[in-house]
Amino acid sequence: MIICKKISAVRDIVKEQRGQGRSIALVPTMGYLHEGHLTLVEEARKSGAFVVMSIFVNPLQFGPNEDFARYPRDLERDAKKAEGAGVDLIFNPEVEEMYPAKNLTHVEVDELGDSLCGASRPGHFRGVTTVVSKLFHIVQPDRAYFGQKDYQQYLIICQMVKDLNFPIEVIGVPIVREEDGLALSSRNIYLSPEQRAEALVLQRSLGEAENWFRQGERSALTIEERIKELIRNESSGEIDYVEIRSAENLHRVEQIEGKIFIALAVRFGSTRLIDNKVLEGM
Amino acid sequence: MIICKKISAVRDIVKEQRGQGRSIALVPTMGYLHEGHLTLVEEARKSGAFVVMSIFVNPLQFGPNEDFARYPRDLERDAKKAEGAGVDLIFNPEVEEMYPAKNLTHVEVDELGDSLCGASRPGHFRGVTTVVSKLFHIVQPDRAYFGQKDYQQYLIICQMVKDLNFPIEVIGVPIVREEDGLALSSRNIYLSPEQRAEALVLQRSLGEAENWFRQGERSALTIEERIKELIRNESSGEIDYVEIRSAENLHRVEQIEGKIFIALAVRFGSTRLIDNKVLEGM
């Protein structure tokens, strides 16, 4: 496995691989790898592609009061995990390599980025789409893999790729969870043991919501309110949002039909966790 | 020469050419070709590349009260000229091919697009950078050629390519003029014979400005004011702007030093013409 810090080095290696007839897969990450990331790598490897993983904590997608500075970083640990999973190349640039001078250009997807995490984190998705565009241009992959824990991000990237005609296939990979149900996230390490225990209410409430849905409940509002009640009753978590939205275009849903997802974001202390469940209505 | 209306057809042909070891050059245009466009093709051919010319009147870069509907279009005439100049492929999509559904994504370069033409034409450069990004992703050229009559546009595209790491070399080609000095523009056909005669004041005033500069004048404000005076005295043109700016970053200049350009936009009736001159200060 190769580790590159420089854009030009990545370009050279990718070009060489492509010259040998291999397709290129990109797994963009912010590092501090967990099984969720490694599942993306596993998917990427299925195609026989040369697998590039980017590890870059992108300042552009963090708000001024967010956790950019303390976001966990451990390249040595990540490199071991990535190599074990079959990554061929890690691209781990410094901030100066990605943003050498004042960055004036951004890529933005209207509407889709205004709600849910976009409402709580202004500028976040603009930072994501901008850095992902840069990574797409640097690596020029045939396929790129994104985890569906960030379901809104996944939809936004799909829309961007379609709208701007990126010659790239975007592949969404389902959430990976701990044995007890907590969705994997690099931010889980921020949780105290008590918060870690309380955070299980996210997955539990999504499971309950699925039960209500299976029993015939179709009112989005009713399910949203019942989830909120459950979270409030069974944890000290502070709800950021609980919303049911179309899994195609993120539009608000009143009566559940077609493919929807239930998205939630809850704070435990200063740690904000997200989770979601996709449901297919009749 | 091939004419393609479909993105998939362009992609197939470009892929085939690249497979045969040829590099790809892109000349983006809105059609109604003149010698300026053909000079871009001539430059593109020098590299031995497969030359793709896009002809697309992009609705996204026209304001609601601008000339999108009446912008001149004549594919048959353009195809003859393009073939004569050595274009290999014309990409001439319908609006629905480029914007099949609601387009939610845009690419924007901050600051550089706010002044000059951007101030008079809100959203114009955002439309340009968005469609150029799409064309870059569709054609995936090694080099792209832009006329420097739209000097601000050229700088904005350069900035975008640098900021977003497009794997593309942007080549700016100097203004091509009629024998009497009028900068070539597809919009020149809008001019009445009287306006056409009056419009020569643009090139004349830029020439005078160069003389003042050569004689030692270094105050941007003085030169700007003298150009305005000349245009007002010698034509009925309505001045939109006359400004001296850095040719590197578009910043305002007080004392001329380094590489600058004098940019002007003047309306003759409902026709807005632009012109510029690049000067290298000591």
Work out the largest interface and the residue count of each chain: A-B, 26 and 26 residues
Low-confidence residue ranges of chain A: none
Structural class given helices, strands, pairing of chain A? alpha/beta
Tell me about the largest β-sheet of chain A: 6 strands, parallel
Strand runs of chain A, count: 10
- CATH level 1 name of the largest domain in chain A: Alpha Beta
Radius of gyration of chain A: 19 Å
Topology of chain A as a string of helices (H) and strands (E)? EHEHEHEHEHHEHEHHHEEE
**Separation, N- and C-terminal Cα atoms of chain A:** 46 Å
Number of structural domains of chain A: 2
CATH topology of the largest domain in chain A, by name, is Rossmann fold
What does this structure look like?
- The structure is a homodimer of 282-residue chains.
- Chain A is of the alpha/beta class and 282 residues long.
- Chain A has two domains: 2-173, Rossmann fold, CATH 3.40.50.620; 186-274, Pantoate-beta-alanine ligase, C-terminal domain (Pantoate--beta-alanine Ligase, Chain: A,domain 2, 2-Layer Sandwich).
- The first copy, chain A, is 39% helix and 22% strand.
- Chain A contains ten helices and ten strands.
- Chain A has helices at 7-19, 35-46, 75-85, 95-98, 116-120, 124-139, 151-163, 193-198, 200-214, 220-234; strands at 2-4, 24-29, 50-55, 89-91, 105-109, 143-147, 169-173, 238-246, 259-268, 271-280.
- A six-stranded parallel β-sheet of chain A has the order 1-4-3-2-6-7, sandwiched between helices. In chain A, strands 8-9-10 form a three-stranded antiparallel β-sheet.
- The N and C termini of chain A lie far apart (46 Å).
- The mean pLDDT of chain A is 96.
- Chains A and B meet through strand 5, helix 6 and helix 7 of A and strand 5, helix 6 and helix 7 of B.
- Strand 5 (105-109) of chain A pairs antiparallel with strand 5 (105-109) of chain B.
